[in-house]
Design goal:
Layout: H1 14-20, E1 23-25, H2 36-45, H3 55-58, H4 64-76, H5 81-97, E2 100-107, H6 110-114, H7 119-136, E3 140-148, H8 156-164, E4 171-177, H9 189-197, E5 201-206, H10 213-220, E6 226-229, H11 237-245, E7 250-252, H12 254-259, H13 272-277, E8 282-284, H14 289-292, H15 296-307, H16 311-324, H17 329-349
Helix pairs in contact: 1-15, 5-7, 8-9, 16-17
Bound molecules: zinc ion.
Length: 359
Protein backbone atom coordinates (compact mmCIF):
# COMPACT_ATOMS: atom_id res chain seq x y z
CA UNK A 1 0.00 0.00 0.00
CA UNK A 2 1.34 3.42 -0.89
CA UNK A 3 0.93 5.62 2.17
CA UNK A 4 3.18 8.34 0.74
CA UNK A 5 6.20 7.46 2.90
CA UNK A 6 9.52 6.77 1.12
CA UNK A 7 10.22 3.19 0.05
CA UNK A 8 13.25 2.29 2.19
CA UNK A 9 14.01 -0.85 0.18
CA UNK A 10 14.41 0.84 -3.23
CA UNK A 11 17.88 2.18 -4.12
CA UNK A 12 17.93 5.99 -3.94
CA UNK A 13 17.66 7.87 -7.22
CA UNK A 14 20.90 9.78 -6.72
CA UNK A 15 20.58 11.81 -9.93
CA UNK A 16 17.16 13.11 -8.84
CA UNK A 17 18.44 13.89 -5.33
CA UNK A 18 21.59 15.55 -6.74
CA UNK A 19 19.38 18.03 -8.61
CA UNK A 20 17.95 19.16 -5.29
CA UNK A 21 21.24 19.59 -3.41
CA UNK A 22 22.23 23.10 -2.35
CA UNK A 23 25.05 24.23 -4.62
CA UNK A 24 27.87 26.71 -5.12
CA UNK A 25 28.54 27.81 -8.68
CA UNK A 26 31.93 29.27 -9.60
CA UNK A 27 31.89 29.10 -13.38
CA UNK A 28 28.85 30.75 -14.89
CA UNK A 29 28.78 33.63 -17.38
CA UNK A 30 26.23 36.41 -17.01
CA UNK A 31 25.77 36.83 -20.76
CA UNK A 32 25.65 33.05 -21.28
CA UNK A 33 22.88 32.85 -18.66
CA UNK A 34 20.55 34.99 -20.78
CA UNK A 35 17.09 33.66 -21.49
CA UNK A 36 16.51 33.56 -25.28
CA UNK A 37 13.19 35.38 -24.99
CA UNK A 38 14.85 38.18 -22.99
CA UNK A 39 17.54 38.63 -25.64
CA UNK A 40 14.87 38.73 -28.37
CA UNK A 41 13.01 41.44 -26.46
CA UNK A 42 16.12 43.50 -25.66
CA UNK A 43 17.34 43.20 -29.26
CA UNK A 44 13.96 44.53 -30.46
CA UNK A 45 14.05 47.40 -27.94
CA UNK A 46 17.59 48.32 -28.98
CA UNK A 47 17.00 48.06 -32.73
CA UNK A 48 19.22 45.01 -33.20
CA UNK A 49 18.15 42.72 -36.02
CA UNK A 50 18.52 39.05 -35.09
CA UNK A 51 19.47 36.51 -37.79
CA UNK A 52 16.54 34.22 -36.80
CA UNK A 53 12.78 34.59 -36.22
CA UNK A 54 12.45 32.23 -33.27
CA UNK A 55 14.70 33.33 -30.37
CA UNK A 56 15.28 29.68 -29.42
CA UNK A 57 17.04 29.17 -32.77
CA UNK A 58 19.39 31.98 -31.81
CA UNK A 59 21.02 29.74 -29.23
CA UNK A 60 22.00 27.01 -31.67
CA UNK A 61 25.71 26.33 -32.07
CA UNK A 62 27.89 23.38 -33.00
CA UNK A 63 31.34 24.24 -31.65
CA UNK A 64 33.19 26.78 -29.52
CA UNK A 65 33.68 29.27 -32.34
CA UNK A 66 30.03 29.25 -33.48
CA UNK A 67 29.07 29.53 -29.80
CA UNK A 68 31.22 32.66 -29.49
CA UNK A 69 29.45 34.13 -32.55
CA UNK A 70 26.08 33.68 -30.75
CA UNK A 71 27.63 35.18 -27.61
CA UNK A 72 28.48 38.30 -29.60
CA UNK A 73 24.87 38.62 -30.80
CA UNK A 74 23.71 38.50 -27.17
CA UNK A 75 26.20 41.22 -26.26
CA UNK A 76 25.08 43.42 -29.17
CA UNK A 77 21.55 43.30 -27.72
CA UNK A 78 22.65 44.76 -24.38
CA UNK A 79 22.90 48.55 -24.24
CA UNK A 80 21.49 50.11 -21.08
CA UNK A 81 21.97 49.71 -17.34
CA UNK A 82 18.40 48.42 -17.20
CA UNK A 83 19.32 45.68 -19.72
CA UNK A 84 22.16 44.54 -17.45
CA UNK A 85 20.00 44.78 -14.33
CA UNK A 86 17.39 42.53 -15.90
CA UNK A 87 19.98 40.07 -17.23
CA UNK A 88 21.67 39.83 -13.81
CA UNK A 89 18.41 39.41 -11.90
CA UNK A 90 17.14 36.71 -14.26
CA UNK A 91 20.47 34.85 -14.18
CA UNK A 92 20.30 34.71 -10.38
CA UNK A 93 16.60 33.83 -10.41
CA UNK A 94 17.36 30.82 -12.64
CA UNK A 95 20.41 29.90 -10.52
CA UNK A 96 18.43 30.03 -7.26
CA UNK A 97 15.76 27.81 -8.82
CA UNK A 98 18.49 25.25 -9.61
CA UNK A 99 19.63 25.22 -5.95
CA UNK A 100 22.53 27.69 -6.20
CA UNK A 101 22.96 29.37 -2.80
CA UNK A 102 26.25 31.10 -3.63
CA UNK A 103 27.69 32.07 -7.01
CA UNK A 104 30.77 33.84 -8.34
CA UNK A 105 29.62 34.95 -11.78
CA UNK A 106 31.66 36.18 -14.75
CA UNK A 107 30.73 39.21 -16.80
CA UNK A 108 32.59 40.07 -20.01
CA UNK A 109 32.28 43.80 -20.72
CA UNK A 110 34.80 43.77 -23.61
CA UNK A 111 32.21 43.23 -26.35
CA UNK A 112 29.77 45.92 -25.23
CA UNK A 113 32.51 48.43 -24.48
CA UNK A 114 33.65 47.90 -28.08
CA UNK A 115 30.15 48.91 -29.18
CA UNK A 116 30.26 52.13 -27.20
CA UNK A 117 28.55 51.14 -23.93
CA UNK A 118 30.62 52.58 -21.04
CA UNK A 119 31.70 50.01 -18.45
CA UNK A 120 30.15 52.22 -15.75
CA UNK A 121 26.72 51.64 -17.36
CA UNK A 122 27.30 47.88 -17.46
CA UNK A 123 28.41 47.81 -13.84
CA UNK A 124 25.59 50.05 -12.58
CA UNK A 125 23.05 47.61 -14.05
CA UNK A 126 24.82 44.52 -12.71
CA UNK A 127 25.05 45.91 -9.17
CA UNK A 128 21.35 46.87 -9.24
CA UNK A 129 20.43 43.35 -10.40
CA UNK A 130 22.62 41.74 -7.72
CA UNK A 131 21.13 43.84 -4.93
CA UNK A 132 17.58 43.17 -6.08
CA UNK A 133 18.21 39.41 -6.41
CA UNK A 134 19.80 39.21 -2.98
CA UNK A 135 16.75 40.93 -1.49
CA UNK A 136 14.16 38.77 -3.29
CA UNK A 137 15.91 35.42 -3.69
CA UNK A 138 17.84 32.90 -1.62
CA UNK A 139 21.17 33.46 -3.36
CA UNK A 140 24.38 35.42 -2.71
CA UNK A 141 26.60 36.45 -5.62
CA UNK A 142 29.92 38.14 -6.27
CA UNK A 143 31.17 39.08 -9.75
CA UNK A 144 34.37 38.30 -11.66
CA UNK A 145 35.39 40.63 -14.50
CA UNK A 146 36.35 38.48 -17.47
CA UNK A 147 38.94 39.64 -19.96
CA UNK A 148 38.24 38.53 -23.54
CA UNK A 149 41.53 36.89 -24.49
CA UNK A 150 41.17 37.13 -28.30
CA UNK A 151 40.95 40.95 -27.92
CA UNK A 152 44.57 40.80 -26.76
CA UNK A 153 46.29 42.25 -23.70
CA UNK A 154 45.92 45.93 -24.72
CA UNK A 155 42.35 46.48 -23.36
CA UNK A 156 42.97 44.20 -20.36
CA UNK A 157 44.86 46.68 -18.19
CA UNK A 158 42.08 49.30 -18.27
CA UNK A 159 39.52 46.65 -17.32
CA UNK A 160 41.67 45.45 -14.44
CA UNK A 161 42.11 49.05 -13.26
CA UNK A 162 38.34 49.53 -13.33
CA UNK A 163 37.83 46.33 -11.34
CA UNK A 164 40.40 47.55 -8.83
CA UNK A 165 38.34 50.66 -8.07
CA UNK A 166 35.16 48.74 -7.15
CA UNK A 167 33.98 47.29 -3.85
CA UNK A 168 35.93 44.02 -3.48
CA UNK A 169 32.94 42.45 -1.75
CA UNK A 170 30.96 42.83 -4.99
CA UNK A 171 33.66 42.59 -7.69
CA UNK A 172 35.98 39.97 -6.26
CA UNK A 173 38.35 39.09 -9.07
CA UNK A 174 39.34 38.87 -12.71
CA UNK A 175 39.30 36.04 -15.22
CA UNK A 176 40.08 35.47 -18.88
CA UNK A 177 37.64 33.65 -21.12
CA UNK A 178 36.95 32.59 -24.70
CA UNK A 179 39.00 30.31 -26.91
CA UNK A 180 42.60 29.31 -26.22
CA UNK A 181 43.36 28.72 -29.91
CA UNK A 182 46.14 31.01 -31.15
CA UNK A 183 46.27 32.67 -27.72
CA UNK A 184 49.55 33.07 -25.84
CA UNK A 185 48.43 33.35 -22.23
CA UNK A 186 51.81 34.81 -21.26
CA UNK A 187 50.76 38.03 -23.04
CA UNK A 188 48.38 38.72 -20.13
CA UNK A 189 51.10 38.52 -17.47
CA UNK A 190 51.19 42.27 -16.79
CA UNK A 191 47.40 42.64 -16.56
CA UNK A 192 47.18 39.72 -14.13
CA UNK A 193 50.13 41.00 -12.09
CA UNK A 194 48.33 44.35 -11.80
CA UNK A 195 45.17 42.51 -10.66
CA UNK A 196 47.23 40.78 -7.98
CA UNK A 197 48.69 44.10 -6.79
CA UNK A 198 45.17 45.56 -6.60
CA UNK A 199 44.04 42.69 -4.36
CA UNK A 200 41.80 41.03 -6.97
CA UNK A 201 41.52 37.24 -7.05
CA UNK A 202 42.64 35.58 -10.30
CA UNK A 203 41.35 32.73 -12.44
CA UNK A 204 41.48 31.94 -16.14
CA UNK A 205 39.92 29.61 -18.70
CA UNK A 206 42.75 27.18 -19.53
CA UNK A 207 43.10 23.56 -20.57
CA UNK A 208 39.70 23.44 -22.29
CA UNK A 209 40.45 23.75 -26.03
CA UNK A 210 44.12 24.43 -25.27
CA UNK A 211 46.88 22.14 -23.94
CA UNK A 212 47.85 21.30 -20.34
CA UNK A 213 50.70 23.78 -20.72
CA UNK A 214 48.13 26.60 -20.51
CA UNK A 215 47.22 25.43 -17.00
CA UNK A 216 50.90 25.65 -15.98
CA UNK A 217 51.14 29.16 -17.50
CA UNK A 218 47.99 30.19 -15.62
CA UNK A 219 49.55 29.13 -12.34
CA UNK A 220 53.15 30.18 -12.88
CA UNK A 221 52.88 33.27 -15.11
CA UNK A 222 49.40 34.67 -14.38
CA UNK A 223 49.37 33.80 -10.66
CA UNK A 224 45.92 32.19 -10.86
CA UNK A 225 44.46 30.60 -7.75
CA UNK A 226 41.79 28.72 -9.66
CA UNK A 227 41.48 27.31 -13.20
CA UNK A 228 38.29 27.38 -15.27
CA UNK A 229 37.79 24.05 -17.07
CA UNK A 230 41.40 22.80 -16.82
CA UNK A 231 40.34 19.30 -17.85
CA UNK A 232 43.29 18.81 -20.20
CA UNK A 233 45.64 18.98 -17.22
CA UNK A 234 45.32 15.17 -17.32
CA UNK A 235 47.52 15.14 -20.44
CA UNK A 236 50.47 16.00 -18.16
CA UNK A 237 50.85 13.53 -15.25
CA UNK A 238 53.36 15.72 -13.37
CA UNK A 239 51.13 18.77 -13.60
CA UNK A 240 48.12 16.66 -12.59
CA UNK A 241 49.99 15.56 -9.44
CA UNK A 242 50.96 19.18 -8.73
CA UNK A 243 47.40 20.54 -9.15
CA UNK A 244 46.08 17.73 -6.93
CA UNK A 245 48.72 18.25 -4.22
CA UNK A 246 48.17 22.02 -4.12
CA UNK A 247 44.38 21.55 -4.27
CA UNK A 248 44.09 24.18 -7.00
CA UNK A 249 40.35 24.19 -7.73
CA UNK A 250 39.17 23.44 -11.26
CA UNK A 251 35.75 24.83 -12.17
CA UNK A 252 34.64 22.04 -14.49
CA UNK A 253 31.55 22.36 -16.71
CA UNK A 254 30.65 18.85 -17.90
CA UNK A 255 27.57 19.55 -20.06
CA UNK A 256 29.19 22.64 -21.58
CA UNK A 257 32.21 20.55 -22.59
CA UNK A 258 29.87 18.14 -24.38
CA UNK A 259 27.60 20.66 -26.12
CA UNK A 260 29.94 23.64 -26.69
CA UNK A 261 33.53 22.43 -26.83
CA UNK A 262 32.75 18.91 -28.15
CA UNK A 263 35.39 17.49 -25.81
CA UNK A 264 33.51 14.22 -25.42
CA UNK A 265 30.32 12.50 -26.59
CA UNK A 266 28.48 12.63 -23.27
CA UNK A 267 28.99 13.45 -19.58
CA UNK A 268 29.68 9.76 -18.75
CA UNK A 269 32.82 9.92 -20.91
CA UNK A 270 33.90 13.34 -19.58
CA UNK A 271 37.28 13.48 -17.77
CA UNK A 272 35.54 14.73 -14.59
CA UNK A 273 35.65 11.24 -13.04
CA UNK A 274 39.37 10.90 -13.84
CA UNK A 275 40.09 14.36 -12.37
CA UNK A 276 38.37 13.46 -9.08
CA UNK A 277 40.07 10.04 -9.05
CA UNK A 278 43.43 11.84 -9.43
CA UNK A 279 42.67 13.77 -6.23
CA UNK A 280 41.98 17.09 -7.99
CA UNK A 281 39.52 19.53 -6.44
CA UNK A 282 37.22 19.46 -9.48
CA UNK A 283 33.89 21.23 -8.96
CA UNK A 284 30.70 21.06 -11.04
CA UNK A 285 29.39 24.17 -12.83
CA UNK A 286 27.11 25.06 -15.73
CA UNK A 287 29.17 27.66 -17.72
CA UNK A 288 26.45 29.15 -19.98
CA UNK A 289 23.14 27.75 -18.72
CA UNK A 290 20.81 30.03 -20.72
CA UNK A 291 22.57 29.43 -24.01
CA UNK A 292 22.79 25.71 -23.36
CA UNK A 293 19.19 25.42 -22.19
CA UNK A 294 20.41 23.69 -19.01
CA UNK A 295 21.09 24.52 -15.36
CA UNK A 296 23.71 23.39 -12.88
CA UNK A 297 21.09 20.94 -11.56
CA UNK A 298 21.36 19.11 -14.91
CA UNK A 299 25.15 18.97 -14.52
CA UNK A 300 24.79 17.49 -11.02
CA UNK A 301 22.23 14.93 -12.22
CA UNK A 302 24.30 13.89 -15.25
CA UNK A 303 27.51 13.66 -13.22
CA UNK A 304 25.75 11.45 -10.64
CA UNK A 305 24.28 9.21 -13.33
CA UNK A 306 27.32 9.24 -15.62
CA UNK A 307 29.83 8.21 -12.97
CA UNK A 308 27.51 6.19 -10.73
CA UNK A 309 28.36 8.39 -7.74
CA UNK A 310 26.47 7.87 -4.48
CA UNK A 311 24.71 10.70 -2.67
CA UNK A 312 27.59 11.21 -0.21
CA UNK A 313 29.98 11.82 -3.13
CA UNK A 314 27.58 14.31 -4.72
CA UNK A 315 27.23 16.12 -1.39
CA UNK A 316 31.02 16.21 -1.08
CA UNK A 317 31.22 17.76 -4.56
CA UNK A 318 28.74 20.45 -3.41
CA UNK A 319 30.85 21.08 -0.28
CA UNK A 320 33.99 21.29 -2.44
CA UNK A 321 32.34 24.22 -4.24
CA UNK A 322 32.31 26.09 -0.93
CA UNK A 323 36.00 25.31 -0.34
CA UNK A 324 36.92 26.42 -3.88
CA UNK A 325 35.03 29.71 -3.58
CA UNK A 326 36.53 33.07 -2.68
CA UNK A 327 33.94 33.77 0.01
CA UNK A 328 35.37 34.97 3.35
CA UNK A 329 36.03 32.24 5.94
CA UNK A 330 33.01 33.07 8.11
CA UNK A 331 30.72 32.93 5.09
CA UNK A 332 32.20 29.57 4.07
CA UNK A 333 31.58 28.19 7.59
CA UNK A 334 27.97 29.37 7.49
CA UNK A 335 27.44 27.86 4.02
CA UNK A 336 28.94 24.54 5.12
CA UNK A 337 26.66 24.34 8.18
CA UNK A 338 23.68 25.20 6.07
CA UNK A 339 24.54 22.67 3.35
CA UNK A 340 25.01 19.86 5.92
CA UNK A 341 21.62 20.67 7.46
CA UNK A 342 19.99 20.70 4.02
CA UNK A 343 21.65 17.39 3.06
CA UNK A 344 20.09 15.74 6.11
CA UNK A 345 16.68 17.29 5.42
CA UNK A 346 16.82 15.83 1.91
CA UNK A 347 18.00 12.47 3.27
CA UNK A 348 15.24 12.20 5.84
CA UNK A 349 12.67 13.17 3.23
CA UNK A 350 14.01 10.34 1.00
CA UNK A 351 14.11 7.87 3.90
CA UNK A 352 17.92 7.63 3.85
CA UNK A 353 20.38 7.47 6.76
CA UNK A 354 21.69 10.90 7.76
CA UNK A 355 25.18 12.00 6.75
CA UNK A 356 26.24 12.34 10.40
CA UNK A 357 28.91 14.92 9.92
CA UNK A 358 29.76 17.29 12.76
CA UNK A 359 28.71 20.82 11.90
ZN1 LIG B 1 33.37 29.63 -19.25
Amino acid sequence: MDDGSPDRTAPPDVAALARRLPKVELHCHLEGSARPETIAELARNNGVVLPVEDPRELFEFHDLNSFIAVYEIICRSLRTAEDFRRLTYEALDDGAAAGVRYREMFFSPGFVIGMGVPIEVVWEGIVAGLREAETDLDIRCRMILDIDKPSGPAPAEALVRFAGTQDRDVLIGVGGDSTERDIDHRAFAEAFALAGRLGLRRTVHAGEDGPAENVAIALDVLGCERIDHGVRVLEDPELTARVAAAQVPLTVCPISNVVIANLCADVASHPFGALRAAGILATVNSDDPGMQGTTIADDYAQVAAGFGYDLTTMETIALDGIGASWAPADEKDALRKRFLAEFDELRSEAGLALRHEPT
